[in-house]
TrEMBL record:
InterPro entries: AhpD-like, AhpD_core, CMD-like
One Pfam family here: CMD
Carboxymuconolactone decarboxylase-like domain segment(s): 23-95
Alphabetical list of PANTHER family matching this protein: 4-CARBOXYMUCONOLACTONE DECARBOXYLASE FAMILY PROTEIN (AFU_ORTHOLOGUE AFUA_6G11590) (PTHR34846), BLL7811 PROTEIN (PTHR34846:SF7)
Endpoints of the signal sequence: none
Name this protein carries in UniProt: Carboxymuconolactone decarboxylase family protein
């Protein structure tokens, strides 16, 4: 299966992707814990149905030492006992930030307050940026029908 579009061969996309990649690296290097970032990226991608990003973030998380059990339970994090309270707060934030049309108000005050108990302002900023960033990347991949399965950890680290 081939993607509908090859963003890497497009002059317009190439110019924009340079900035998207830089943005992704800045978020990755932020104070938000790497494990939290991968869990959030995976959950947002699951909600949006982006197979390419699910593939990528599952493999990146595993390469960083994340357990298979936790990766398998991300979709059902509310019923799972394997996530910390800060991770649970970040996953709830990610879900509401992703399902803005469903939530009506986006991230509720209660969810924001729970996240703010565990993350400082810089980390909350990174969390909000990550949820938004993943929404952008998910949509680009879904529109182009980028196939999943061949991603290798670190593939886009330059």
């Amino acid at each position: 299966m081939d993607a509908r579009l090859d963003y890497f061969s497009s002059e317009t996309a190439g110019r924009i992707f340079k900035h998207i990649a830089t943005s992704g690296r800045i978020i990755k290097d932020s104070a938000l814990p790497t494990s939290t970032q991968e869990l959030v990226a995976l959950r947002v991608s699951q909600i949006n149905g982006c197979a390419a990003c699910i593939d990528m973030h599952t493999k990146e998380a595993a390469a960083a030492g994340e357990s298979a059990v936790r990766l398998h339970l991300v979709a059902a994090w509310r019923e799972a006992t394997v996530f910390t309270e800060p991770e649970r707060a970040a996953l709830e934030f990610a879900e509401q930030g992703t399902r803005v049309a469903d939530a009506g108000e986006g991230v509720s005050d209660e969810v924001w307050e729970r996240a703010a108990r565990h993350y400082d302002t810089e980390q909350l900023t990174a969390l909000a940026l990550l949820v938004s960033f993943m929404g952008l990347v998910n949509r680009l991949n879904i529109i182009a029908r980028v196939p999943a399965g061949d991603y290798q950890p670190g593939q886009f680290d330059h």
